[in-house]
Specification:
Helices cover about 40% and strands about 15% of the residues. The chain is an alpha+beta fold. The strands form two sheets. It has a four-stranded antiparallel beta sheet with strand order 3-4-5-6. The two termini are about 25 Å apart.
């Protein structure tokens, strides 16, 4: 579990060129969650409560352009849909793929409406939106090219902005429904 002190240490890893605004209040975080219909993971909430990094690669949850935030939140699902349309991707748990691409996209949209929401942390790095789970991996997501980028938020910050510490070889990554399929 990320503590406020740990969150401040993670924010301290960011380069001097990264502006960090005051942390978001509980009310601000709740408004974001209500507006965008997801709930931050506990460690993401703690981080944002200690400081809000801003800049082009950071989602600005306080004053960000709504179209930009909507696009960032849609990025993981839109990437899968792109591959359904252009690379003939089809998840093995879905019904058989329709032959018509438009029908396939419609069916895929229905399935994807049910998958867990992934929330942008930085650029195309995402964390599961789940207020009940902590310690889920940060994923680098580009269409169906999805890889682990950290065993959890703290590990991700060390890899992206600090000094990486390799996890033990037998370290199991927690699964994320639907999204973990791309990681196996």
């Amino acid at each position: 579990m990320l503590t406020p002190e740990g969150a401040r240490a993670l924010l301290g890893m960011l380069s001097a060129g990264t502006e960090i605004e005051r942390g978001m209040s509980a009310l601000e975080l709740e408004r974001v969650e209500e507006r965008w219909e997801f709930r931050f993971a506990p460690e993401h909430r703690t981080l944002l409560g200690e400081g809000l990094p801003v800049g082009s690669a950071w989602p600005d949850w306080r004053d960000g352009d709504p179209e930009n935030l909507a696009a960032r939140l849609a990025w993981p699902v839109d990437g899968v849909l792109f591959d359904v349309e252009h690379a003939r991707f089809w998840h093995p748990d879905w019904e058989p793929r329709p032959t018509d691409t438009r029908d396939a996209l419609d069916m895929a949209r229905g399935y994807l409406a049910l998958v867990p929401t992934m929330v942008p942390v930085f650029s195309h790095r995402y964390l599961l939106a789940d207020p009940e789970r902590t310690g889920t991996p940060v994923l680098s997501m580009h269409q169906t090219d999805i890889i682990y980028y950290g065993t959890d938020l703290a590990d991700y910050f060390r890899h992206e902005f600090g000094h990486p510490v390799p996890p033990p070889e037998d370290h199991p990554y927690p699964t994320i429904p639907f999204w973990s399929y791309f990681l196996d």
